[in-house]
Design goal:
Elements: H1 9-15, H2 24-41, H3 47-56, H4 66-73, H5 83-102, H6 107-117, H7 129-140, H8 145-155, H9 159-169, H10 176-192
Length: 198
């Protein structure tokens, strides 16, 4: 399957102001690249829904103060089930709707994208294949050297500590392809950062 990625350029441009929080201007493009690879592995997935959802899934962080994001979203108790996580999802939906409308997407696509955004971090289980792909793409980027570096800042960890955190997340991957990609990327990152020594 060949996907015309230029069809999403207007959405990138419209959402760009909301990507200037929490290093989302790094996280989102890298996650988008992983989503493309996953969609190519799963022909039953809807490329538009998956790619629009990953592109917009974290823009809600824009509405939240960075100190609160770090304190509650990455360093507090139960970081995946707290008020700031729910808030970034609802804010993400609020911001995504006009972005998608202004760039010409149908109400049906908008509803499917927003259903994924609203719960992508906090919902215990995915609802369908598109949801599973977005969840995996959202995790995959953290296994790269860049993702490890950003993760160290977010969680206040060393690269080795962050590598161990990511190791514990591997069983949470929703697709076989996603897990395999994560394992390969994590091994490459461990070699690049000399985590056998450091």
């Amino acid at each position: 399957m060949t996907i015309d990625l230029t069809r999403y350029d207007p959405v990138w441009r419209a959402a760009e102001p909301y990507m200037r929080a929490r290093k989302n201007d790094v996280h989102i493009p890298l996650s988008f690249g992983w989503a493309v690879k996953l969609v190519e592995q799963y022909p039953a997935a809807d490329p538009d829904v998956c790619l629009l959802a990953i592109l917009l899934h974290d823009i809600g962080w824009y509405s939240i103060d960075m100190e609160r994001i770090v304190a509650e979203g990455f360093r507090g108790e139960n970081v995946l089930q707290n008020d700031v996580r729910y808030l970034h999802e609802t804010e993400g939906v609020r911001l995504a709707i006009p972005v998608l409308r202004e760039t010409g997407w149908s109400d049906e696509v908008i509803a499917q994208v927003c259903e994924i955004i609203d719960g992508h971090d906090t919902r215990p289980d995915p609802r369908h294949l598109n949801d599973r792909i977005v969840r995996d793409a959202d995790k995959l980027w953290r296994y790269s050297v860049t993702g490890t570096s950003v993760g160290c800042d977010w969680f206040g960890e060393t690269p080795h500590q962050n590598w161990l955190r990511n190791q514990r997340i591997l069983p949470r991957f929703e697709t076989e392809a996603g897990r395999a990609m994560a394992e390969a990327e994590q091994a490459a990152t461990a070699r690049a950062l000399r985590l056998d020594v450091l």
